[in-house]
Every structure is written in C-alpha cells, then in structure tokens.
Amino acid sequence: MYYTLLIVLCLQSAGPLDDAAALDRLEMSDGTVLVGQVLQFEDGRYIVEVEGIGKIEVAGENVVSVTISSTETLRTDAGEDLSGTIQLQDETWLVKNPLGARTIPRGRVLAINPTPVVAPTSTQKATITLNGAQTTGNTRTASAVMNLDYTFRYLTHRFVSKVDWTYAEDDEAVTKRSTGAEIKYDFFPEDNWYLYTSFSARNDAFADLALRTTAGIGAGLQILDTDNIEWSEETGISALNEDFEVAQDATTSTLRIAGRAEWTLKKEIFEAFHDHTLYIALDDPEKMLIQGRLGVRTRIVGGLSLNAQMNLRHDSQPPGDVEQDDLEFLLGLAYSTNF
Known about the structure:
twelve-stranded antiparallel β-barrel, 1 helix, 2 domains, Porin, disordered N terminus
C-alpha cells in the first residue's frame, strides 16, 4: 500500500518537477536565490522574471552563480555570440550546445541576449567654418572666408554639398572675392562602392572668371566608413565650361578624380579632414584644375571648435596675368552638428 501511494504521488508530481527543472536559477552573494527566467544580462545588470512577482533587476556584482536551462545567446568582449545552455560557476561561464562546451572567464562576458543594435536609417552632418581678420591704423584691411559643408545619408543614398566664400579688401578697395559651390549625389549598390553624379560652379572676379561650371558622372569606392573615420575616393567624366570676363571662353571634357576623408579622435574632441578634386582635360592633359582642403578641428564646447585649415585652388593654364595658385591659410571657428 505504501509503495502504491508513493508511485501515485510521483506520477502526480512529474509535471511540476519538470517545470521546475526548466526554470533558471540565479544565486546572489547574500544567499538569496531567484528562480524564474533570466531574460537578459547587459550593462552589468541581470533582468529576471519571477512568476507572481514580475521582472526584477539585479546588479551583476551581487551574483555568484547562474543557471540558464534554455538556449540563449552569450556575447563576449571579442564580439563572439555563443548559443546554448549557460551556467556561471566559480567566476567562469560554461556554454553547452550540440557542438560541444565552451568556458569563458566571467570578466570577458558582456551580455546575455544583448539588445539588437538597430542602425539609424538616416544621418546628417552640417559644418560651418568662419575665418576672418581685420586691421586698422596705418594699414586698413579686412578679410573673411566661409566654408559650409552638409552631408545627408539615407540607406543607399548620400547627398554631399559644399559652399565656400572668400572676401578681402585693402583700404576699402576689394582685393579678393570668389564663391564656389558643389552638390553631389551618391547611390550605393553595395556598401563599399557607389555611383555618383555631381555639379559644381565657381565665380572669381580677380581670376577673370565670370563662371565655371562642371557636371559629370562616375563611380567611387567607400574605403572606410566607421564611427571614427570615413574615407572615399572616386573618378569619372565631367563636362567643364568656363566663361571669362576678358579671355576667350572654353569648353572641354575632363577626367575627374576626387576624394574626401574625416578622422575623429579622442571621443570627438579632435578631428582631421581633407578633400580634393582634380580635373584633367581629355584633349590636353596639361590643362588641370585642382582644389583641395586640409585641416584640423579641436572642440571647445559642444559643437563649437577651433579650426585651422589650408585651402588650395590651382589652374595650370590661367588666362592673362592671373596667378596659377590661390592658397589660403586660415584660423577661425567651426560649428558642427549631427542630426
């Protein structure tokens, strides 16, 4: 009779015992044991769901052992994701799956069931740079240079635009005035390369240039694109049209070679940047137009930075008595924002 009763009790309790065996177990340093489901470990905290109580957060440093009986995902500091049943004992994690078992030191585990990282669908960055100088007294001069850059990226699309303006006067007589702008659209069939179309315009009264325009297409390589560094190079064909104040107007087809790079260091405190564009006439390779920028920015506060840069514009065959090179060394302020 005793044995019959014992068998009946065991059969009746088989379901609850199986359910208990399937629950996770978390033991804390003060002896407290939580039985339920370990939902996640991330940012040094466990989230455990206990039936009848709900979700409980537990600081990781207070936990001495963990047993997770269901198949979950463990992430290490090397970026590995390991799936299987998981156990923490004696400062060591043990992951078991059909392929075998793996042990990992406790300090190397970053998360269990980490929150998926969702890449932003769009990013925008705008930077305006102002550089100026003024003298009074025996010498009265004033100069100002402005650069405006804007980049918009949405999935496989990228828009890049640049505007620059230069002005200088000496004793109230204007000695320099030029304006330039460029807009470019990139389409990415793959993450590491793209097709582009571009248009640019420039006016420089002191270089006898009423208006220079370019329009072209081509392809480029996205060599690097991370949180800290972006680097791309591209080449294509552009039509070049130059309207001069005095010299004879000119139109030609050119090979366009361009590139840009931005490198951010020290948690966005320091930034180095560079861009260049080269046009080579297909009917006369000696005819070249080059423009580029090279500089650094050091953050002062928020998006405000101290800016030091060099601007270069070169025309290998300028009209009349116009100099080949325009070179500007600038020190001023820059403001950048991401949104």
